[in-house]
Write a structure and sequence with these properties.
The chain is of the alpha/beta class and 143 residues long. It has four helices and seven strands; from the N terminus they run H-E-E-H-E-E-E-H-E-H-E. Strands 1-6-5-2-4 form a five-stranded parallel sheet. The protein has a two-stranded antiparallel ribbon with strand order 3-7.
Amino acid sequence: ITESGKEEETILRLARVGYENVLGYLQGGIASWNEKLEVVNSIQAKELKSLRNAKVLDVRKPSEWAISHFRNAVFVPLGYMPGNLNDLDKRQRYAVHCGGGYRSMTAISMMKRLGFTDLVNVQGGFTAMANAGLEIVTEEVTA
């Protein structure tokens, strides 16, 4: 589902995360959808500190993770989903993030379809988490 005039951009973004077989789009965008949409809960990065019993799920690319990541995060790149979700507890609360917020929403959509029930999107993703002063692990990368 995309806005009119954004079809090519959406196809490009989907290809970047491994979805290259786009079969069509919803004519008229989301405004033309007559069904009720499911809501995704979102939080600000600074709220992660007070989010109880949640694991942080990082869905960024391996190269992004290797540079820096949230301490104790679970790492499952979006491009490797849904196949690499089998080891995760579907009843566990996950705070899902990517670099800026786009990929995490895609990941949450897939996870909900697979039966995960307690998912929260971190608005602004990793950038917002770093800016909020959360504990980030930085790795040395050799060129």
